[in-house]
From TrEMBL:
This is L-galactose dehydrogenase. SUPFAM superfamilies: NAD(P)-linked oxidoreductase (SSF51430). GO terms for biological process: L-ascorbic acid biosynthetic process. It comes from the Eukaryota. GO terms for molecular function: L-galactose dehydrogenase activity. It comes from Cicer arietinum. The gene is LOC101495571. GO terms for cellular component: cytosol.
Length: 335
């Protein structure tokens, strides 16, 4: 009888959710984990991911303290949203325990920032995600549309979706930093809650930091994505289609080689660097496997416990100095 009691007690033991640093997102009241789960790889964007693999990755991320999950209907032609929705549902935890962001305006067949399309888009996304609402809805890569349409048509449509309870907060995303100042200077204060920038807060390009005071003055939260600069800051190197110049690719390759030769990891260093500025709420990292989640969580915890490797950061910084803050074109020419 006693043995039965002991075994039944064991079954009740729950896996403890380990803590990760939470940071406030602008004036939203949301507290996001400093590392966010970028779900584009769940759309088979970087190779096939099984449902079991996706569920295990999301589960481990959540158990490790990651509470922020970002997707888009563009990723994998809507597959990322479907897979993430299933994985979040499989967690079997209250909806309030995780934060979900998706996007609108960019799709597998192109861009459409019309009020009609983005209004329909969120309904489709909610169905795929199996949710009643998202926490953040963002116009996706707005430099590929007319910024005046974004200001005058798209954002007002998003405000209506916010009022209708389809999303709690709204924002914009894109590569050129000038799109954020252009739009924020033309909408009433408090209209937008968040911006998502990518490839501008990494070891090779820290230009996002130049507009942080401006963004804070506008009351918007700041999310940064792609701390590895879309593969530039990895041992494997970027995909063939990467738009960076040959000089930038060569410098990043030399940085990765230096790290390898000295027992360091360029990707870990890059992620840790991107976490140093606490005014940037969350850094989104694409993940598709338990191993990737483990590596990113370990790097984050190591940074919190013992700081960044200053010698490696200094050496890599010196290698990258000739190409520092070099970017690449994105979007259409704005009139």
């Amino acid at each position: 009888m006693m043995i039965l009691l002991l075994s039944s007690k064991k079954k009740k033991v729950k896996k403890r959710v380990r803590k990760m640093e939470l940071r406030e997102l602008g004036r939203t009241g949301l507290k996001l984990s400093c590392v966010g789960f970028g779900a584009s790889p769940l759309g088979n964007v970087f190779g096939s991911v099984s449902e079991e693999q996706a569920n295990a990755s999301v589960r481990l991320a959540f158990q490790s303290g990651i509470n922020f999950f970002d997707t888009s209907p563009y990723y994998g032609g809507t597959l990322s949203e479907k897979v993430l929705g299933k994985a979040l549902k499989a967690l079997n935890v209250p909806r309030s325990e995780y934060i979900v962001a998706t996007k609108c305006g960019r799709y597998g067949d192109g861009f459409d920032f019309s009020a009609e399309r983005v209004t329909r888009s969120i309904e489709e996304s909610l169905e795929r995600l199996q949710l009643d609402y998202v926490d953040i809805l963002q116009c996706h890569d707005i430099e590929f549309g007319s910024l005046d349409q974004i200001v005058n048509e798209t954002i007002p449509a998003l405000q209506k979706l916010k009022e209708a309870g389809k999303t709690r907060f709204i924002g914009i995303t894109g590569l050129p930093l000038g799109i954020f100042t252009y739009v924020l200077d033309r909408v009433p204060p408090g209209t937008l809650d968040v911006i998502l920038s990518y490839c501008h807060h990494s070891i090779n390009d820290s230009t996002l930091e130049d507009i942080v005071p401006y963004l804070k003055s506008k009351g918007v939260g700041i999310i940064s994505a792609s701390p590895l600069a879309m593969g530039l800051l990895t041992e494997a190197g970027p995909p063939e289609w990467h738009p960076a110049s040959s000089d930038l690719k060569a410098a990043c390759r030399a940085s990765a080689t230096y790290c390898q030769e000295n027992g360091k990891n360029i990707s870990k260093l890059a992620l840790q660097y991107s976490l140093l500025n606490k005014e940037i709420t969350s850094v989104l990292v694409g993940m598709k496997s338990v191993e990737q989640v483990e590596e990113n969580v370990a790097a984050t915890r190591e940074l919190a416990a013992s700081g960044i490797d200053k010698e490696a950061l200094s050496e890599v910084g010196a290698i990258l100095k000739p190409v520092k803050n070099q970017s690449w074109p994105s979007g259409i020419q704005q009139s």
